[in-house]
Design the sequence.
């Protein structure tokens, strides 16, 4: 016999309860912060996959180790031109953006 747990909450429901419904100011602030967090994690993972230190990546794309660290640790806003340079010159990739409306 299969047991069901009616006390489970979906992640979406949890976010609604914690930060409000999609479209509210609090939820939008959360979503923006989460996207910045994901960007930092992505840069860090790509850097590590290529066996680069933060300093090596910084040298390849003309920035500083401190700046790379701040991006990876979600402590700095990043300019689009700088992000493109990090991806292109530092990681050898191409940046593609999309907009969801």
Sequence:
């Amino acid at each position: 016999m299969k047991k069901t747990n009616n006390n489970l909450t979906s992640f979406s429901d949890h976010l609604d309860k914690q930060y409000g419904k999609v479209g509210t100011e609090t939820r939008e602030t959360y979503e923006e912060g989460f996207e910045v967090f994901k960007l930092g994690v992505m840069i860090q993972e790509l850097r590590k996959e290529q066996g680069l230190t933060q300093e090596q990546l910084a040298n390849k794309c003309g920035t500083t180790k401190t700046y790379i660290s701040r991006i990876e640790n979600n402590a700095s806003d990043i300019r689009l031109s700088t992000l493109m340079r990090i991806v292109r010159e530092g990681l050898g990739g191409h940046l593609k953006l999309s907009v969801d409306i």
